[in-house]
Amino acid sequence: MSEFTVQTDERLVVVDITDRVEAAVPADATGTATVFVRHTTAGIAVNEAESRLLGDFETALADFVPDEGWAHDEIDDNADSHVRALLVGPSETIPVADGSLALGTWQSVLFVECDGPRTRTVQVVV
């Protein structure tokens, strides 16, 4: 297992972490890599990392899950972040061949911050 941190500077932001995940895969690995975030208000997704699409993804999450009106907000005022992360999910499993992620042409590994700014830990298990 290997780990790295992702630092964000916005409450809701999508960051391409493909290069960092690729670097965590051993050169001789073949099988699968599971990318997992150990936080309940962040997630991992696989999709295209085109900048306008990432902005659209952020906008869609913000529009789909309103910031206010949640019962959990009485505890720590971040229920929207938990709900957004629940929709994204905490992990992705990606095929690995000869030490490289076997992603499709336009696929990237994306870290989705829902309660930033924060420093998060991402685990890669091959």
Explain what this protein looks like in three dimensions.
This protein has 126 residues and is α+β, with helices and mostly antiparallel strands. It has one domain: Sandwich (Jelly Rolls). It is built from four helices and eight strands; from the N terminus they run ββαββαααββββ. The chain has helices at 18-24, 51-64, 73-76, 79-88, and strands at 2-7, 13-16, 31-37, 42-47, 91-97, 100-101, 108-113, 119-125. The strands form two sheets. It has a five-stranded antiparallel β-sheet, with helices on one face. Strands 2-7-4 form a three-stranded antiparallel β-sheet, with helices on both faces.
SS class? alpha+beta
Based on DSSP secondary structure assignment, what is the total number of beta strands? 8
CATH topology name: Jelly Rolls
Text of the CATH class: Mainly Beta
Report the mean per-residue pLDDT as an integer.
Answer: 96
Looking at CATH, the homologous superfamily is YjbQ-like
Notable traits:
Jelly Rolls; 8 strands; single chain; alpha+beta; 3-stranded antiparallel beta sheet; 28% helix; 36% strand; 126 residues
Topology at a glance:
Elements: E1 2-7, E2 13-16, H1 18-24, E3 31-37, E4 42-47, H2 51-64, H3 73-76, H4 79-88, E5 91-97, E6 100-101, E7 108-113, E8 119-125
Antiparallel strand pairs: 1-8, 2-7, 3-5, 3-8, 4-7, 5-6
